[in-house]
Amino acid sequence: RKEVEQDPGPFNVPEGATVAFNCTYSNSASQSFFWYRQDCRKEPKLLMSVYSSGNEDGRFTAQLNRASQYISLLIRDSKLSDSATYLCVVNSASGGSYIPTFGRGTSLIVHP
Amino acid sequence: NAGVTQTPKFQVLKTGQSMTLQCAQDMNHEYMSWYRQDPGMGLRLIHYSVGAGITDQGEVPNGYNVSRSTTEDFPLRLLSAAPSQTSVYFCASRDYSGANVLTFGAGSRLTVL
Q: Which residues of B fall within a CB distance of 8 Å from A50?
């Protein structure tokens, strides 16, 4: 079983829709959590960190549920430019450092 | 501020050839790492380094060597390329202050025939 699991999608939604992705992780000692965005043939870039209390950045809301070991990303009022792959990242302690583990990504397609 | 620079962007090799993918960062980051990305597999960690002179294996290290003689550079060596190493390779670095966020290079697309 992979340490970080995501539904690969694709999620195909119209402009203006609200869409949510979940990501589950297996290491209960994981320390920090992130969502990255990756456009086609480009490098991943940080979208937002995920905090226990939940956090919001404009149309994007991230939540962490440590008890159930999942994180979520909610995108409101989807734009065409939101079309991308969204990668869940979990940092876990290993030998004195924090090693990031990536999920396989969830593909989002926003259509007119 | 260049960030993380990877070279080459594209490379075609024949089976058995060797090559080095270069990665350099100018942010004085201690942590550097190499990932490969294949369709349906996501990003998988090959090797990482927590500082100059220190390297460690990730999830898929076989067939790859690394070294870290300076803080800035973290080259990835393929000693005898195999078709299974056809992939997109990303180098990423991170500092230890604050958010632990990775900064990626633009990627190197490698094809092994």
A: none
